[in-house]
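Deliverable D4.2, example record:
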Amino acid sequence: MAKTTKSTKVKSPTKLKATSKVKKKPGTKQKAAKAAKKKAALPLPGGLKAKGAKLPKRIRKVEARVLQPLNISPVGADAKILDELWQTVEQRRLAGDVASSHSARLMARGTAKVAQKFGEEAVECVIEATIGNRAATVLESADVLYHLVVMWVDAGIKPEEVWAELARRQGISGIAEKAARPAGIIRAAGTTKLP
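Output generated by the structure prediction step:
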């Protein structure tokens, strides 16, 4: 009987070269390119921008949302709503119906709780504005104004008093107004860094 032998295939030299290459880590060239771009994208002194320098994508997205034109759709909505809101909250306070009025219930819990709630809403508004969430900033701003009005009612402050103070400040430089503050206010605050 004749022996049958298996024939062995001999790989061509080109295939050997292709399989004998040392594998590099994936993305090595990309990482080097990114590092080179980072070095080139360093900010220039004095806030100057280099030609072709681009802001990061996440910042461009936030700016696109924040810089959208203001579209006011409700017809007839204006600042008079604050005076009407104050009257409603004052009526709720006088009625004292804590079972059905959120305003009355909040004021019944005391001035500290009213002030705390205003602070919470202000912080939420700041957060939404900081991250560039325009729609949520509008909603939180409404919450801030509502709780500010509740705080005014609780303190016995009428909107006209605040409007008069704003009118008094109109046309006065903020720097001049700050410098004219009584020294007693600055001492009571314990700081010279008042807004």
